[in-house]
Amino acid sequence: MYGIAGKGNVVGNGTYNTKSGRVQKYICRRCGRVFCSRTNTAFYDLRTEEEKILLALKLVLKGMSLRGIAEVLEVKPETISRWLSRAAEQSEEINKKLLKDLNVSKVELDELWTIVKKRAAGTKRR
User: Which residue ranges does the record assign to the HTH cro/C1-type domain (predicted)?
Assistant: First the structure.
């Protein structure tokens, strides 16, 4: 029952406030571990609003420099770099789980994303 959702072993255990709003806390009845809805995400233990971090990541994807993003969002370039690293680590974890469950190689997954990006770019031009 460890790590399996919907088995009744995890229950709500209050909330706490952040700049982004309330965060739900949970406790596992089985092992007593306390965690929150941000645990194992790129937002865990960050004090910045989630929207600001997501905007920074979108701007990186659009090709804006880290220094430029930092200037616009009024944070240090190192902060943007740290957010980007966290997001990359989280993406890698998701890829690992996808590859395990789907029995797809990393090369095949990269090829799939290339196709998806080409199709998405084609629909934007129309």
Answer: 55-109
